[in-house]
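Quick one:
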Amino acid sequence: MLRRDRLRCGGAIHSSSLAAQCVARPTSPDRRAIIKRFILPVTWISLLTIVGGYLTIEEANAEKARDQLAKARQAFDAERTGQLTRLRIGYDPIGNQPGGVLDPSILNDDLSSLLGGIPVTSAYVGKTYTDTVKALGEGNIEVAWLSPLSYLYAYQKYGANVILRRLTPEGQKTYQSYVITKKNSGIRTLHDLKGRRFAFVNPLSTSGNLIPRYELTKAGLDPDKDVKGFYAGSQAAVTEQVLNGDAPAGAVSSDNYNASLEELGNKGSELTILFKSPVNIPEGPVALRKDIQRYDTLRVEDALLTIGEDSPDVLHTLNIGGFAKATIKTYQPLLHIVNDMNIDLSTYNG
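Output:
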């Protein structure tokens, strides 16, 4: 008896001759509707499962971020009483009090008021840039108004924290280094300085030492051998040395030179600028001691900015036009010059 292969199709048993028809038979519309109703929900469920997982991760991350923020707020709130009981400000030798021509007492009074009444004073820290840096590093002052180069020294040696830079009376953020001489000196170029006495300000003066040395080197002169350099001690002393003929030339900042012309009157007309450095020096930094807590740092910064914005006349008594935010990056270009000239700041003694 002949066997016939049998094939189950759609729940029925058919002979093999119907197999092709069974395989080729299209899915009925009702069946397609059932499949669609089943597959689409599965697809959405899969997608929602993925999205849900992602959102769960994101929620976990958000929760972690919230926890971190809460801890940061707790830490910040814990400091909100402030630890500063006084604020002593030390100036490098730029002519300010004590013993100088500028009086910061009005600034001190305004700062005290904005800082909740804590006493603010100007501390005598010595006569050199290094004295000011040392006073900051050893805890004898809380704030120092430094030169850019002395700040880099303070940063490397003591971890000083710069918060602001001072602005010129005209509101400029940078200044230049000038090489000055007398109009009748016969000196016309930097090369004419070879073999002559030259008045630098101080080892840690930016405009009065670092930049003029850099420019002399670029001009092909060795600042230690080709000129008879010496340190006059201050910007005003350099101007005086040039005027009285003790030094045919010297280096000062553009700020100090312009101010000295006003003070000298007709005598200032004897001076001339031999060379203006193309390097734009960031104005002098205001730096805090390393151990001043974050909350107090922000309070001091805000108080100075507030005075600069609301009471500019107060700052004019100090011959500055205000403040601008600053970080170590502000002074990084100067550090590149220091490195290019192989200067070891730790050996400097201003």
